[in-house]
Design goal:
Layout: H1 3-14, H2 18-26, H3 31-42, H4 44-59, H5 63-68, H6 78-82, H7 92-112, H8 114-124
Length: 127
C-alpha cells in the first residue's frame, strides 16, 4: 500500500506553483518558514488523502495478519470475519453484522473528510 500514497503526495506537492516559494523568499522567509507556512498548509488535502488511504490499508489488512500474527488480540478487525466461518459452515448472521459494524468507522471518517479526500485525489493527479 505504500507506493501509491507516496507518489500521490509527491505529485500533489510538485503541483504547487514555484511562484509561492519565490514570493516567500522575496518577503524574507527562510526555507523552514516556506515549508511550514506555504507548502504544509497548501498540502493538507494531499496529506489527508494519504492518511486516509494508509489507514484504510492498515484497517483492512488481512493477508499479513492471518499469515504472520499469532495472537488474536493483535489482529486487525478484518480477520474477525474470517473466524465466523469454519470448514463446513458459515454463520451468515454474525458475518453480515460484523461486516456492517466493521464498515461503520470507515464510512464516518470518509463522510467527515470527503471534501478533502476528493480534493486531494483530483489535485494530486493534475500537473
Amino acid at each position: 500500500m505504500s507506493p501509491f500514497p507516496t507518489f500521490l503526495l509527491r505529485s500533489y506537492m510538485v503541483a504547487i506553483p514555484q511562484d509561492f516559494e519565490d514570493a516567500a523568499f522575496v518577503d524574507g522567509a527562510s526555507r523552514w518558514q516556506v515549508l511550514w507556512r506555504i507548502f504544509i498548509p497548501l498540502s493538507w488535502p494531499g496529506f489527508l488523502t494519504v492518511i486516509l488511504l494508509t489507514a484504510l490499508g492498515a484497517y483492512h489488512e488481512f493477508l499479513f495478519a492471518i499469515t504472520m500474527i499469532q495472537k488474536a488480540e493483535l489482529m486487525p478487525v478484518a480477520t474477525s470475519l474470517y473466524y465466523f466461518s469454519n470448514r463446513w459452515i458459515r454463520s451468515w448472521g454474525p458475518t453480515n453484522s460484523g461486516a456492517i459494524i466493521m464498515s461503520i468507522p470507515v464510512i464516518i471518517i470518509f463522510l467527515l473528510l470527503q471534501r478533502h479526500f476528493i480534493e486531494g485525489l483530483t489535485q494530486g493527479g493534475l500537473k
